[in-house]
Write a structure and sequence with these properties.
By secondary structure, the protein is an alpha+beta fold. It is 24% helix and 17% strand. It has a domain of 239 residues: FAD/NAD(P)-binding domain (3-Layer(bba) Sandwich), CATH 3.50.50.60. The longest helix has 24 residues. It is globular, with a radius of gyration of 23 Å.
């Protein structure tokens, strides 16, 4: 058991968390980053090669990250442009060169917080955390960039999670049910999707397809917001590994996948709906990195999503490993079972996990990504709660999304990934439970208040991923670059507070604004 101290401690070595840490270190302060997994960089370095994109919002470390990748092999551009899509190795190189190139930032992996302790002299302030291994970490200033928002939750700060009731924030309804309300199956809830969601037993994945929660009503909330899953790096025809058979994969598991395939319910070439997309700038013929692809799709609902944030670290490890086995087992079955048509087996065997990525940092098998895609889990109940009206302009007055304390700009469309699939009578039709899209979204400013818990609950903490917002807002906010922009501005705020030995809330926004303007921060759209 050892004791460590720092000027600032961040929980979560995600891309946004690292930017938050690096900005404080840039001001001359020592920072420790605690990461509960063994992976550094979150989804940005963990398989999200073809990510979401918003134009005209990037600046600072986020902009430099995409420019760095563009200026290095295999792209080698010299015009200052950005590279949207990239391999995990390219992302790792950029993170190491830009965010971890200073001795003032120390990252500790497998740092699993057991307890959070407050100062005896100020019960609103976190003093130190104790890890499961007994080590303690002490600081006067704290940040959280984790996908699970673990530090605020363990500190006893008020949190929100899951899907809000339609009545909580009176969110605008784009696809209403017959009563004009947002039903629990949110996206066009009375559409039926033949043959794709479930097989005739209603169990597309083991223990995943399930009925809606008992007792829920139209317009009611639910305990889950998004389905989780994977973003894979894949290789096509070159530099690939054969699909692995998971340990404990049963004949019954194989039969289930074969049944899906033969009935046309397996969702394309990959049984669990993986959608490979070429990494731009590197076509199949590229001598530097032939056949590089990243995936979309592959969502896993039900047991692979339920209660993630409230689980222990060990339980999360088991869920992620099981999610790995479910996906790899499905691909192994499609590639090897003789009941699968030969042409399909040949096609899927042209693909595989990479030989040159995730060979030491992985879940389950070499080549498998190490980062489970936790799209949205817990978030704080902040001094300001971002809602639909802050990002959705149907007035024609162009007034949504402007605040007196902006620190960054977001604007990706609200994007839900259905977290339940359940069968209707007859078996071959199913219904998505969850999902909605707001087509009239706009760029919006993100206020500082959305990143701060109430001072009475915690006065020395900032949050860059789990910011305060409704489910629909967070479905837009939850992309790496937006949270990274917020992280940099929060880093400036923390540096000002440390330099003055002041509480975070005592730093005037006007002083932070000077720092952000000096960094050419984009705070409103249009700027």
């Amino acid at each position: 058991m050892a004791k460590f101290t720092a000027d600032f401690i961040v929980n979560g070595a995600t891309f946004p968390g690292l930017i938050l840490a690096r900005e404080v270190a840039d001001a001359g302060y020592n920072v420790i980053v605690l990461e509960w997994t063994g992976h550094i960089g979150g989804m940005t370095t963990g398989g999200l090669g073809v990510g979401d994109w918003i134009t005209n919002t990037r600046w600072g470390w986020v902009l430099r990250f995409f420019q760095y990748i563009a200026s290095h092999p295999p792209y080698n551009r010299t015009d200052g442009s950005e590279q949207k899509d990239f391999s995990s190795d390219e992302a790792i190189a950029a993170v190491n060169a830009l965010l971890l190139d200073t001795p003032r930032v120390t990252v500790v992996t497998k740092a699993r917080i057991r307890n959070v302790y407050r100062k005896a002299s100020d019960r609103t302030a976190i003093e130190y955390v104790e890890l499961e291994n007994g080590d303690t970490y002490w600081s006067n200033y704290w940040g959280d960039g984790s996908y699970e928002c673990d530090l605020p939750a363990l500190a006893g700060i008020s949190m929100r999670y899951g899907r809000d009731s339609r009545y909580l924030f009176r969110e605008k309804v784009e696809y209403p049910d017959e009563r004009g309300l947002l039903s629990l199956p949110g996206h066009k809830p009375y559409d039926l999707t033949p043959g794709r969601l479930v097989d005739d037993r209603g169990d597309r994945y083991p223990n995943v397809t399930q009925p809606p929660f008992v007792g829920q009503v139209i317009g009611g909330g639910g305990p889950r917001a998004q389905a989780y899953g994977w973003r894979y790096s894949l290789r096509y025809k070159t530099a690939r590994l054969p699909w692995p058979k998971p340990p404990g994969w049963r004949d019954a598991d194989t039969d289930r996948i074969v049944d899906m395939i033969l009935k046309g319910q397996a969702g394309g070439l990959f049984p669990l709906d993986l959608s490979p997309r070429p990494v731009s700038g590197t076509p199949d013929t590229s001598p530097n990195s032939p056949g590089r692809y990243s995936t979309n799709g592959g969502d896993l609902a039900g047991i692979f999503t339920n209660g993630w944030g409230n689980r222990s670290y060990a339980e999360r490890d088991k869920i992620a490993l099981r999610a790995c086995y479910a996906t790899m087992g499905a691909n192994w079955t499609a590639a090897n079972d003789p009941r699968v048509p030969e042409s399909r087996r040949n096609d899927i065997n042209d693909w595989g996990l990479p030989l040159d990525e995730f060979q030491t940092d992985y879940i389950g098998f070499p080549g498998h990504p190490p980062a489970y895609y936790v799209r949205d889990d817990r978030s704080i109940r902040a001094q300001y709660t971002m809602r639909t009206h802050d990002m959705y302009d149907d007035t024609g007055l162009n007034i949504a999304g402007y605040f007196s304390d902006p620190i960054a700009v977001g604007g990706y469309h609200p994007d839900f990934h259905a977290f339940y699939r359940y069968p209707l009578p007859g078996g071959l039709q199913g219904r998505f439970d969850g999902g909605i899209d707001y087509s009239n979204h706009r760029r919006y400013s993100i206020p500082l208040r959305a990143c701060l818990p109430f001072a009475s609950e915690c006065s020395n903490l900032v949050v860059c991923w789990g910011v305060g917002g409704s489910t629909i807002f967070r479905a837009s906010y939850r992309i790496e670059q937006t949270a990274g922009l917020v992280g940099q501005s929060l880093g400036m705020l923390i540096a000002l507070a440390i330099g003055r030995n002041a509480k975070i809330g005592a730093v005037p926004y006007a002083d932070l604004l000077v720092k952000m303007k000096a960094a050419n921060a984009i705070l409103q759209y249009p700027a």
